[in-house]
Give the backbone structure.
Amino acid sequence: MSNPRIYQQDNFTVGETCQLSDDAFGHLIRVLRLGNDATVTFFNGDGHDYSARLVDVSKKKAFAEIVDKQFVANESPVNIHLGQGISRGDRMDFTLQKSVELGVNTITPLFTERCGVKLSGERLDKKVQQWQKIVISACEQSGRASVPTVLTPQYLNDWLEQETSAVKINLHPRAKHSIMSLPVSADRVRLLIGPEGGLSDDEIEIASNADYTEVLLGPRVLRTETAALTAITILQCKFGDLA
């Protein structure tokens, strides 16, 4: 692989040298077997890419000299906060990965009536860390230099009560209006997607009372991961940079 791109949570300064993190070392040195003078690109979530040259590579540690800093201008003009009902197995991982590739900025996993996933304490903390790593990996692949945040999972009611100036959307198959009927312009959107089995009637009513606009994608019932990614794509076409 030529010039691999990898995340490292560090403050980079052009002209200075930094030590590779354990994750970066494992990938660049142990897996890719790169050596001295190899060119790599780092990002730390500040919106820039940092070109670097590997130096002082050994079996246990390695360093990189930062040689250039470039702003990455590929963030969408629309800020999308995805409230995603937690789904089972790999579906949640898939949704997070692809939503980041499509430009989502913030993700809040939601506990709902039909969630079917029980998480708490240490298990919950580990799951959030796993989800954040999936987000970082998606940024590495897609070229994003701003890293979306996976917030601590919340109960749906608590998320709906949060104050926001964003356009609020609840996607469900019994809505009467198409997602294409949304306002002509918006720079912030909060998108609510239910888990497998969707939101309950009570949850849909609570969301409606919280001023979430009910929209649908079409006549067919979509899986939760399909619904989320289709809705995000449409929002990016309508308000973002896929027009």
